[in-house]
């Protein structure tokens, strides 16, 4: 096309693809061009506004390191990460939810009933459940990589007071598919807001808070890997998670338990639970590959 106009630019773009372009690449890029071009026309975008957007993207690149990926955070606060999760979830399996930037590789192995909190003080919770398949059968030998904030609202990689494995651990389910541990209640916290994403949240009158949660990555031979989170039903930010991670099946009740109701049958706790505590039951359901 020699004379490009606002009316024919999208078709012209699509016409530029080489014959040997991968069909899926062609589909994705054609759709992207249609939506982007449509967005520019619909909003009648000005040069200044587009320049500002490109500056924001440049800043996003400049601030990104191996430890802090601002592009992932941008995708999270725009709802794109969650939308990708949702359209790739299966209704019979547990919903997936955002991974976030604070997972560490090679977290230490933990025994059934382990004490996750180490020396930290706070409201004690017992977390337990069974990893199951979509027919309700327990899955033995599944690994569950779990991480959470310390009571100060920080993950280990953000906090000089914590070593890198603090509040990170990997459980392996027993012959009944079971896992269990004690910890302190995770707290609501803010996503990093000192960069371009924070600027975007400010400009749109949004807060950077997430409801408190426990992160899970569940893996088992022959099943699809599940990246998810578990939220308490009484968190003030449950209905306004800035990264859109909350799903109905991921919301649990922290059930108050009386002092002295431990140990339970089947395993012992390595952490002392002298006083009252709360209990969460969460059974991750995995989909066969
Ligand atoms: C998190 O839950 O750790 C998280 C998720 C998305 C963005 C920032 C943090
Ligand atoms: Fe988190």
UniProtKB/TrEMBL annotation:
Keywords carried by this UniProt record: Dioxygenase, Iron, Metal-binding, Oxidoreductase
UniProt keyword annotation of Magnesium present: no
Top-rank taxon: Bacteria
Signal peptide interval: none
Pfam families on file: Dioxygenase_C, Dioxygenase_N
SUPFAM superfamilies for this protein: Aromatic compound dioxygenase
Keyword Cell membrane (UniProt): no
Every Intradiol ring-cleavage dioxygenases domain range: 127-155
Cofactor: Fe(3+)
Family matches, as PROSITE patterns: INTRADIOL_DIOXYGENAS
GO molecular function, one term: dioxygenase activity
Family recorded in the similarity comment: Belongs to the intradiol ring-cleavage dioxygenase family.
PANTHER family: DIOXYGENASE, PUTATIVE (AFU_ORTHOLOGUE AFUA_2G02910)-RELATED, INTRADIOL RING-CLEAVAGE DIOXYGENASES DOMAIN-CONTAINING PROTEIN-RELATED
Protein's recorded name: Dioxygenase
Naturally occurring in which organism (per UniProt): Vibrio algarum
Phylogenetic lineage: Bacteria, Pseudomonadati, Pseudomonadota, Gammaproteobacteria, Vibrionales
